[in-house]
Amino acid sequence: MAEATDKLLSRRDVQFCLHDWLNIGETTDAETVDAIIDLSARLAEEHFLSHYKASDTHEPSLDADGVHILPQIGEALGHYADAGLFAAGFAEELGGFDLPFLACAASFAHFAAANVATAAYPMLTAANARLIAAFGSPAQVEAFARPQIAGEWFGTMCLSEPQAGSSLAEIRTRAQPDGEDELGQRYRLQGNKMWISGGDQDVSGNIVHLVLAKVPGIDGKLPDGTAGLSLFIAPKILPDGARNDVSVAGLNHKMGYRGTANCLLNFGENNGAIGWLVGQPGEGLRQMFMMMNEARISVGLGAAALGYRSYLLSLQYAQERLQGRPMGVRDGEPVAIIHHPDVRRMLLSQKAYAEGSLALCLYCAKLVDAHGDPDSTALLDLLTPIAKTWPSEYGLAANDIAIQIHGGYGYTREFHVEQLWRDNRLNPIHEGTTGIQAMDLLGRKILRDGSALPLLKAKLEAAAKRAESIEELRGLAPSMLQAWSAIEACLQQLSDRPAERAFDNATPFLWAFGHVVLGWIWLEQAVTAARLDRSAETQAHFAEGKIRACRHFFDSELPKVAAWLCAVEAGSDTAATAPIETF
Amino acid sequence: MAEATDKLLSRRDVQFCLHDWLNIGETTDAETVDAIIDLSARLAEEHFLSHYKASDTHEPSLDADGVHILPQIGEALGHYADAGLFAAGFAEELGGFDLPFLACAASFAHFAAANVATAAYPMLTAANARLIAAFGSPAQVEAFARPQIAGEWFGTMCLSEPQAGSSLAEIRTRAQPDGEDELGQRYRLQGNKMWISGGDQDVSGNIVHLVLAKVPGIDGKLPDGTAGLSLFIAPKILPDGARNDVSVAGLNHKMGYRGTANCLLNFGENNGAIGWLVGQPGEGLRQMFMMMNEARISVGLGAAALGYRSYLLSLQYAQERLQGRPMGVRDGEPVAIIHHPDVRRMLLSQKAYAEGSLALCLYCAKLVDAHGDPDSTALLDLLTPIAKTWPSEYGLAANDIAIQIHGGYGYTREFHVEQLWRDNRLNPIHEGTTGIQAMDLLGRKILRDGSALPLLKAKLEAAAKRAESIEELRGLAPSMLQAWSAIEACLQQLSDRPAERAFDNATPFLWAFGHVVLGWIWLEQAVTAARLDRSAETQAHFAEGKIRACRHFFDSELPKVAAWLCAVEAGSDTAATAPIETF
User: Which residue spans adopt a coiled-coil conformation according to this UniProt entry (chains A, B) (predicted)?
Assistant: First the structure.
């Protein structure tokens, strides 16, 4: 059982995932990992959770000096930097600690659970620094990645524009060549960047913007499509101490995630913002995409963490709130609501969603660490759209259930569960919406190159075999394999269909595929749990909880796969071919 | 198609439901109905929609004088009263216009769509006045119902207490006899009432509280359970002009629905609040429950309306927002996102949810009007938990999709869709949570007295027969009847099960039952649409839209029935029997 002291994630569960299931000790010193996790849990609770409400009510503000954010955010990130957590995942030669992504992800989940908006700053900074470290010149790495790895400067990703959200081909930010210096090919950038998280703030020494822009051709026109996109480093403050030509045109007022200043940035309102090209022209999208798996797993992980904390909150509330009596009992004192079957059903659904989401993201993080192995990379590519969307949709579902368990109290801002729900609603949108992920899964990852499917199938079959050898899990695996067969049959039908109709129901396909993947993730966990030494009572309860959650997922969730595939298999074009006038 | 001028609900759709489908002209003058609907749409847009954002950002405040609400709310309700809408559904001898509940419901849906928090005041006032009119003495009706029917005073329902939410047996408010006067048996009330919507405000002349309380026995103790509950009228200002002993102990700060002041009220902090008994002692719960069908339909209707407006907003946005290109096209100008199959799928899901919810609630409203007919009353009792929950869950799902279609913009407070989502999240909670409705459906309405089931089955079969006679609908009805058979088979299994385990999965059963009911509601609409005169193009498009939404519901939603029944049929007690320590 989650301990009363587990405010963010269950410590036992995190250990279970890292050690018992994913064997992190094979590649990393187990004690180091545990120390990092304990440190993260403590820092997150002390310095991130403590201003969760405050960062919601005191939104970032904008004046002539720029954007001001809640001072506690800066203080929290100071502690994060002091603990070396900005540097954790980077190579030692860059000032990092060379920890595997899996350990970093497990650490990060605690901060996201405590305060996802504050945690967004280091998440973006790490992604930014990692990109520069991977593709920048040594001088660029020294000048722009190192201060971020040290946690002194923060970073942003400037992709979207007001007219270019999901479709980056629409980008109009223009980069004019402006000579060369020790930091590389210099350009002058002009354009408007929208939805820039951490686009400005007053807590870091500098802000390193990574800007996607197009270099005009000889005719002065911007190239069409995404092929002409290049990536530029445009710091808020230039190396000579002067302000770059980047200004905050406005703040977006969001429903949640409010502590993360989200800006409309104008580049080059005056002479053009100075930006140094990363790598070669035209490589921008490829560079971004090489970071995309990690970024999308981080989004999924944040969503999982938000769902997870709401599970722990409702578990606690359900044990404290007295209301009603057991079925058939009319008199006597009211009981804690956890004794009502419907509340317990909701809690077990939350557990299946939250723990399943976390386990999936940690599994994918392990695949990131295995990037030398082509099979692992292929499997990671296939699973990434699921790691992004499933926790975003079902972590949110766990948040929704948390409100329901809290009843009227959960609808008030006196409790945290409504804010967790609002915060999490961003996750199905940013870093590629669910619809975009569905196209990615079905198009790029399956129909264009289905080579990863057999790898996943082999994983499912191996888990099934292990499960069937365990008495208390018998009977589960066949329904998972049956669901997988339904997916395969559906794909066969889709591949026979004209391409322009194959994607009409890509999203229901993603839902079905995601549930099968989660069935497998739950079976993996159940097998691992069943093999634990259960002589101690707490271990026995923990293992039983995992197995019950797995069984609940198979009873109540897996049957939905067939329902979603109905529309896909029927090749229903009811929506896609509906004349606009019929809506 | 919904017209661009339809900001709240589609005028054509409301007319379709009222006239083409539910034949309101059989009982009420059609022109009068249309005039009321047009007036409602206009007033709602001019005076309710206009302060939608303001009522969210300027929450009610509390000072020594009591609760202050946004002045525009009072102005809007003044227009509502001037138009006679408080009086619409009441008998002429009470100063009303004797309109059927169906017409009142269709009118009300516009106000809920425009501003559900402002609309809550007249909804509660009507329910309060209706209860007094039904059970109060002539003097009570004169003193307390009439001013509400005139829209001069507003009313509240004081049921919940901090320790008594879903379980009214826990109520501790105490009513001590205090003589008798021309308004009836007088009592002194003492207790705390929680979650009181409209519990205080500064826009109506008086506030009539209907208070559920217990009369202590000779031993001074309050009776156990709900049998001892009685209902009292406790106005804020007494007939002699003195303030009653009712004070506002606090305001609840909600996530949404913020314009509705939601209070913790203390009754009798000094000498006891004066309250007059309605009817006889011990009849409180029965009286409340006789109003419950209408109150629950009104909640469902509000939820439907919130979902409906979010559908219209995303339909408009999807036609204006340019982004991306059709499948396989790489160059050229971006297209409106409504041209993308996934957006169209989302819109059709919204249409199925929103129009289906509205249609269900209006159907139930018609059953309210047929209260003289026992079969209609039995059917209404059976359908009420669905009318309460289905729109609450799927109207909310439509709100969620609206945010997704708006992308990042939908997550900001510059647009309305995020507020519609926050507002609607209350509806699965108040007036009986989804879990409570599930117990009501399965326990009280089906297992205890299954006599309404054959009535519903006959409705389904009749609709199926009509549908099968129409070429373009052929093939739909059998899947609905099959889903119904699955429900019946499941009930057979449940009735063989020990009572204490029969309710473990009452909520998944409710979901399954609800989807079958909605399948039928959609088939009813499709049959009606198919029979419309479709010679005019707009009519043809309207009818095709209804039929496509029906088909989409059958393709994409109805298959979920089998998935939900899986857990119920398996008699899964995985959650219910899980030791607390395993969570």
Answer: none
